[in-house]
Specification:
Blueprint (H helix, E strand, L loop, with lengths): L8 H11 L1 E3 L1 H7 L5 E5 L3 H7 L6 E2 L5 H5 L15 E5 L4 H13 L4 E4 L2 H7 L11
Parallel strand pairs: 1-5, 2-3, 2-4, 4-5
Helix pairs in contact: 1-5
Length: 134
């Protein structure tokens, strides 16, 4: 029996992008390195090891985001209380759009995401750091 989906991932991402700020690559590159901005990499640790990451980015696996934002969670990370602007990114910009939307709904502000994600960042010549294998 085929799964009857009520909303596709494309619809969810499109709806999220109507509610959040989406940065162009030029805007994201211009913000990189600003003291009042935190880039948040939502990708799986295997993606970081394989493809690299934006230098200085904070790694927050997408599956932990809500738990790391909420001060009542035992997994809370105080970086989310910094008062800085959070720039979420993933590989293509889909997870980051949904993450920016849910973060905003939770009360985290200001938040935005990078159009096209890390893939577009690399194609635009943005700086990339790598993790050393352990």
């Amino acid at each position: 029996m085929p799964l009857n989906i009520k909303k596709s991932y494309k619809q969810l991402v499109a709806e999220a992008e109507k509610e959040i700020e989406t940065l162009s690559l030029a805007e994201a590159l211009a913000l990189h390195g600003s003291d009042d901005v935190i880039f948040v990499d939502l990708r799986d640790v295997r993606e970081l090891k394989r493809e690299g990451f934006i230098p200085g980015a904070f790694h927050c696996p997408r599956g932990m985001l809500e738990f790391w934002i909420d001060p009542d969670s035992p997994y809370y990370k105080d970086i989310f209380a910094s008062g800085k602007k959070f720039v979420f990114y993933c590989n293509l910009g889909w997870r980051s759009a949904l993450a920016a939307q849910i973060s905003q709904e939770m009360g985290l502000t200001p938040v935005c995401h990078v159009a096209g994600g890390f893939d577009a960042w690399k194609q635009a010549g943005g700086p990339v750091a790598t993790k050393e294998a352990k």
